[in-house]
From TrEMBL:
PANTHER family: BIFUNCTIONAL OLIGORIBONUCLEASE AND PAP PHOSPHATASE NRNA. This is Phosphoesterase, dhh family protein. Residues 228-312 form the DHHA1 domain. Residues 17-154 form the DDH domain. One of its GO terms (molecular function) is nucleic acid binding. It comes from Lactobacillus selangorensis.
Amino acid sequence: MSVQTEIVEKIKAFDTIIIHRHKHPDPDALGSQAGLATAIKAGFPDKKVYEVGGYVGDLNWITTEEEIPDETYQNALVIVTDTADTPRISNDRFNQGKYLIKIDHHPNDDAYGDLIWVDTDASSCSEMITDLIDGSKGQLVLTAEAARVLYAGIIGDTGRFLYPEVSSHTFAVAAELLSTGFDANAVSMKLSQMTLPQARLQGYAFDNLQVDDNGAAYLILSTEALKKINVPTEQASSVVSAPGHLQGVAAWVIFVEQEDHHYRVHLRSNGPIINELAKAHDGGGHPLASGAKAADTAEIKQIIQQLQEIVAAYDTTA
């Protein structure tokens, strides 16, 4: 029995299913979560299915989350999507159910859960959820609404099919989702839109980005700078991919100061492997896209130096 079949069997066996995702959600976290929830509800209308995780910010056009009491977790199946390790799971009640399933496409460094399905070759967790639906023999149903949110997750995590994880299968899945008839243009427009403060943040990022001779770049976004631009801290991630469009930038790191003065660290790369660097600073992720934390300016300097060393040692002919 494949792990996908086991997951469907567990879904069939439970009357209450609670789906979690990671903190500070992106389109793939919400798309995989909502896509799975919608497909389960369509296939099993009598089941109680909940999406939890709290505030989703300006991505509430993908889905919104529910507040549920602790007792809902009794005898419930809990599924966590798109989350590599337990500290990143949004809502720490994820382990209060009767059975826990992990579905993810990041490296499986934290093998939590009673049943684990990890596919690091998948472009996104939303691609995996589509495969799960397809393999369920009609027990999970791909509605147009499920397809809409899964498509948002795929194009969000692939940068509109630009990133290395994109495969021919990714395009096949996207075509299948499009065939359900949802408004794909509306999804693309939503993901492309930014507020005026976010646009100003883009300008600030390019004005203040530091790039060394080897193409290692960094940007520090203080709470003071974000307040001047009028961008909430949780929306600062809108600028994370921007440095990658600059010719000559091989890898970059963006530090976003939080209200308690520690920093969220966004690491991205066009070639050099950076997830081991993320792991060394309380983080992790994909080889070319990872997250970490920095406690203070001393740790920021350390991360910048380490990134510069990684980029300097990178063999562009490999």
